[in-house]
Design a protein that fits this description.
Keywords: Signal. The protein is mainly beta. It contains one helix and six strands.
Length: 154
């Protein structure tokens, strides 16, 4: 028991353990002008999927029957299966996805690249390339089989 008290005393002495009460809360210090002024600077944007973005049920080329997803947390080998017993084969882990893919949607994106300032880590970079005025730029969302048209303005 004495050894435990001794170890606790050592830890408290070096500030590695609070002395009880609210001593465990670290005091917030004022930066005192040490941080740069980041007003008007493009920061890092979180790339979160837009609300409502969802890949549709797919139709293989020449087939009008929709496929339904069969992918579960316990079974990643099945991707899409036909929803009719007489429909052709779906897509699974054995599909040669470089030569066989579902028809997707046509999606267009307009991107404008400009020079500007950014501070994703808190330090200003003055010669950054911004996409649509932001860094790292907008999230480009697409599903398997989609055709993308990206208009790039420099």
């Amino acid at each position: 028991m004495e050894l435990l008290k001794f170890l606790l005393h050592i830890l408290q002495s070096f500030g590695l353990l609070g002395r009880g009460g609210n001593d465990l809360n670290q005091e917030i210090l004022d930066a005192g002008g040490l941080l740069p002024d980041l007003s008007g600077v493009a920061g890092a944007n979180a790339l979160i999927p837009s609300t409502g973005f969802k890949c549709p049920n797919y139709s293989p080329r020449g087939i009008k029957e929709d496929l339904i997803s069969c992918n579960t947390p316990d079974n990643r080998s099945c991707w899409f299966k036909p929803n009719k017993w007489w429909a052709p084969r779906g897509y699974d882990i054995n599909t040669d996805y470089e030569f066989s893919w579902p028809d997707g949607t046509h999606r267009e994106y307009w991107l404008e690249v400009t020079d500007g300032k950014t501070a994703p880590d808190g330090y200003v970079k003055t010669k950054a390339k911004l996409v649509n005025g932001t860094y790292p730029g907008p999230l480009i969302e697409a599903c398997w089989g989609d055709q993308l048209t990206i208009h790039l303005m420099v």
